[in-house]
Each structure stands twice: as C-alpha cells, then as structure tokens.
C-alpha cells in the first residue's frame, strides 16, 4: 500500500483540510402540515482529513447560494477552511439527477461559487479515481449513516426541527467513535476520538430509556425522534465494531491481540455515545493455539470475553 497523501498526515487545525460528501434527497414537512407536498432537502457532510471529525449542514437546494450559505455556517462554527476535497464523481453514478447537477456545479464552479472560493482563498480539489488511500476518508462507517437513517425514519415525515435534531445527534455519534488509545499506559482506559479535537473531551449524551422496541403508535412525537436516533446508534455502532475487527484473524497464525491492548467490548443496548473500553490483562488459547478468550479490565470491572466480542482499535493492530 502506498503512503497516505500529505494532506492526511500534516498537522493542522480541525477541518483546515476538509472533504465534502453529499447525501440526499430527504423529505420534510411543515410543522403543522398534515397533507400536501413535502419539502426536499440535502445534507452536506464535512469530514476533517486529519482528525476524521464530521460536521453536517442541511441545504434546501443544490444552488451555489445554498452551498455557499452552508459553507459560511460551517466555517462560523468550525473555523476557516484552506482546502476542500470532494469525491471524483463515481459516487454520483446512478445517483439522483439533482446530485449529478451538484457534481457539475462543484466540478465547474459558476461565477458566484468561483468568486466566493477565490475571495476566501479556498482551494477546491478532487480525489483521484481509484485512489484508495484518499478514498479511505469516506469510510464505510460514515457512509452507512444514511442507510440506517432511512430505515429508522420509515414512513415518518419529520419537520425541519426534528430532522435537524436527529442529524446533529448522528453527528455526535460519529464524532464519539474511538480512533486510537490516548496512551500506552495499561491503566489508561480512554481512547482518542474526533470529539477530543472539537470540544476537548468525549461527547456524552443524556441517558434515556430504550424506545426501539416500542411501536410508533405508543410514542409521542418527540419520543419517535429519540427512537430514530437510538435505532441509528445501535446499528451503526454494530457496523463500526464489525469494521474494526480483522476478518483475516481466523486465517493467519498470528496473535492479533496482546496483553495491554486497548479494545472496545461489544455490548448490547449500550447508551448513546457510550463505548465500553478495556485493556487485555490475560489471554486464553484454544486447542489450535490461537487466542479465543481474553480477560478484560474495564471501568465496570474485570471479566472474560470471547475474542469475537472484542474490537481492537486499528493502531494497535
């Protein structure tokens, strides 16, 4: 595998070098609307090249004015951007016609967009085709949020405030994901997350009852919004942990986990933005001389878990 591009390795402030990924369309309704036409909206996802933090902005249409407004809102909260990278357009193949129009807009900026980018000294670049070391930025974990979000919403049409609430909470979920251990200290059970670069600490959420097993008819409107967020959290977290686990561990005679390794313990129905982290204190081998069970030290205590319930942070691999 080739080296990572310089932009992903050079120290910089969060979002100084940013990738932009577009999702949509989504449909929302007026707060007091029962029937009638729905409003079409899109989500612009900004992904920091260095910290892998994400930021969502909602846009009402795919015009230069709307995108510039979203860019201004983003920079007002996250700081000035020096360079923007976008996908090379393959993700637009077969996509909605209006997304293709957006790709045309950013690949050939009109006078309004080109003037704004020039005045702000923002460089716009495209990820080269078939460049996996660039494309890794659009990791499956970030992209999969749309899949789970659409399944969670179902036929429920959200208002703008409800959609904004869910999207901001999903942004918090993505920014809470552990990336690497904070230190090599065996007693340190913390991991670095994108949130550390944005707010200086892990992102926590208010603990609420699990509503995913309740019927929508039994829930109030605000509880349905909570249910959507919880649905996305439970399923996206599972996908992310599966993504971290090495699939080749069953085929190579190599210890992929060692004493002192920081791992994420797979648990069911954990609260929003909560990741159970632990250090390996002892390993147990099977008859095939491969590690099958580990003794894990966590903030909740020390217990045994099969290796299938442990996800090793990538840098430890």
From TrEMBL:
InterPro entries: DUF5641, Integrase_cat-core, RNaseH-like_sf, RNaseH_sf. SUPFAM superfamilies: Ribonuclease H-like (SSF53098). GO terms for molecular function: nucleic acid binding. Pfam families: DUF5641. GO terms for biological process: DNA integration. Residues 10-202 form the Integrase catalytic domain. This is Integrase catalytic domain-containing protein. It comes from Araneus ventricosus.
